[in-house]
Amino acid sequence: MELxxxxxxxxxxxxxxxxPLPDNVLDRILDNxxxxxxxxxxxxxxIIVVTAPETREGLIEATTPGARRYFAQIVAxxxxxxxxxxxxxxxxxxxxxxxxxxxxxxxxxxSVVLVVCVDLRLIAATDQDLDRVxxxxxxxxxxxxxxxxxxxxxxxxxxxxxxxxxxxxxxVLELLGIPDTHAVAAVLPIGKPVKQLTKLRRNGVEEFVTRxxxxxxxxxxxxx
Length: 224
Hints:
Belongs to the nitroreductase family. This is Nitroreductase A. With 224 residues, the chain is an alpha+beta fold. The protein has a single domain (3-194), classed as NADH Oxidase (3-Layer(aba) Sandwich), CATH 3.40.109.10. It contains seven helices and four strands. Strands 1-2-4-3 form a four-stranded antiparallel β-sheet. It is globular. The model has no long low-confidence stretch (mean pLDDT 96).
């Protein structure tokens, strides 16, 4: 596939046919994804390929609490897990919230589940002293995560970037034997999608790009 076609059609695949992902295809996906950039080219990522049913169930157990809060906040009309506005959902409400099967099932039905970790000793978190949640460290791992999803799309497979399990990160570290020098960045169920989308809906460039300043004029171009 052409690069732009892959970029415009890589969607969050959550329904899979159940057919296997051959090792040689996964090899190609990972071998190409590894060329993602990282801070100082320190390549701080580590990927764990999970296929065992019992390990998948452990990941589901870790995913469920975070997902409960996510959907409880949606019902409350909030932006889930955002670090600016505290949630009004009570612990009782969150505990009583049902997690949709669409969140859990991919971890069971995907051909493989990739758990992507990052070595915290190798990232440059230049925002660590600011009075806000840190985001900069992700620059050294999420390009790798996205390269995996792009490569999977190019091979006719797909997946979705999930992070709900990170809310229970200590459980995931113990489950997978991950040292505490590492953080869990993403859990990626990968498989053959039941249907392959070719057209995605996204905001137009002029809706989120401005000239010179945040409150500057919208970036409008007639050259597309």
